[in-house]
Structures are given as structure tokens and as C-alpha cells.
Amino acid sequence: MTIQTVPSLVVPEAFSLWLDSRGLIYQLLVDFLGRAPSLSRIAEWSRNRQMGVAAEMTEGGRELKRYLCSQEPASLPQICEKEQQEYKRLMNNKAARPFIPREAAQLGRAEEFCNVIADVYASAGIVFKKCSGEADDHIAMELEFMAVMHERMLYNSFSVRSAMELLEIQERFLEDHLLRWTPIFCERLNAATGSPLYLGLSHMLEEFLPQDLQMLRAWKSSLESSSAAMV
């Protein structure tokens, strides 16, 4: 992916790989944690060269890369069927699943907590089209929010100031929401499955989110320094 930023938004080399990769990582997590894996999705991600580069950022990503890229094409339908069943067991079977992939459930909050997340989305000018009645605090919805904000920051920022505003929204969302409950979610997911796909996704999520927050803070500091130098 090419970083298509405006001239005023300079991306130092130290941040370019991270910025190239983070949108892909968020979308990969959304694709597999938000719906049962399809054959086309597994094939697409296993062949995605940019995703292969992005996966190297975490050990969990490397696990996922080894699993998806090591499969023979003829074996993909069988693997897809197995992982679809695992997704349904983990995410859809209310009677059997050991956890619920939602912030309110993981933190023991009331159902109305969903409104808090909806307000965050609305304040950022984002309205999601929900095809299956997804809850606003579902893991896939929260990760999708980060993916959308990333795209806006890179492609719709008209100045360093506007990029900083979008960066700060992502920073707060990681601090106030995703990083408060996904460690619990990942711990429970790790204990609940032996699937290479879902273990790889869980490990990737565990590693990537704290790393992403650290990089957001570092880039924010770099942008602030650059702006100060221009004054």
C-alpha cells in the first residue's frame, strides 16, 4: 500500500512500515473475528504479499502467516470448513461458548454500555452499516473503527493538525476501550481453542494493540516536534 498523504504530512522512515501495515492488520482481524472465514477470504489473505510483510511485526502474525501460507490449494476447502465450525463454536453458540466477544460482557458492564461506544463512533462522524445486528462493542466493530480512523488519518488529512486530531481519537480509543478488555478476551480465547487460525489471531491481537499504541504515541511526538520546528 502506498502512503498517499498531503505534502505537509511527512512520514519519517521509522514509521512508514508501521503505517503501511497497521490498516491491513486491523482489517485482517476484522475479517476473521467478525464473521466465519470463507474460502475466498482464506485464499486472499494467504496470497497477500503486503500482509506477509505486515505479519512479521508480531510473533502471532508470523504464526498466522505460517499457517495460512503453508496450505496446499487442494486442502483449503477442508481447512475452511474446519475453521468455520470453530468460529461458530467460539462465537455463535451461546449455550457453549466460554466467552462473549464484546467489551461490556468482558468487563461485566450493563448492556446499555453499548451506547457509550456508539457515542464514540458518532462523535468521530462514523455510522456503521450493520447487516446482522452487530453490537457496537463487539470486537470486530471496535477494530473496524480503528481501521476506518487509520484510513482517514492517512488519506483525508489536509494538515498535520487534522492528522493529529485523528491520531488522538485512536490513541484514546485504544487506552479507554480496546486495551482494557482485549487482554481478557485473548486469554479466554487462548484457553478455549486449539485452532491455529484463532490462536494466531489471538496472539496477533495481544501483541499488536499495545505496540500500535506505542507507535501512535511516538508518531504523535514526531509530528509535534516537526510542527514546533516550523514555527
Attribute tags:
disordered N terminus; mainly alpha; TorD-like; 71% helix; 10 helices; single chain
Description:
- The protein has 231 residues and is mostly helical.
- The chain has one domain: TorD-like, CATH 1.10.3480.
- It has 10 helices and no strands.
- α3 packs antiparallel against α4.
- The model is unreliable at 1-8 (pLDDT under 50).
Outline the secondary-structure elements:
Elements: H1 13-33, H2 39-47, H3 49-55, H4 59-69, H5 76-92, H6 103-107, H7 114-123, H8 139-155, H9 160-192, H10 196-230
InterPro entries: DMSO/NO3_reduct_chaperone, TorD-like_sf, TorD/DmsD_chaperones
Protein name: Molecular chaperone TorD family protein
Pfam families: Nitrate_red_del
* Poorly predicted tracts of residues: 1-8
Morphology:
globular
CATH hierarchy: architecture:
Orthogonal Bundle
- Please compute the radius of gyration using only Cα atoms: 18 Å
* N- and C-termini, Cα separation: 32 Å
Which CATH class is shown?
A: Mainly Alpha
CATH topology: TorD-like
N-to-C SSE string, H for helix and E for strand: HHHHHHHHHH
The CATH H-level homologous superfamily: TorD-like
How would you briefly describe this protein structure?
Keywords: Chaperone. This protein has 231 residues and is an all-alpha fold.
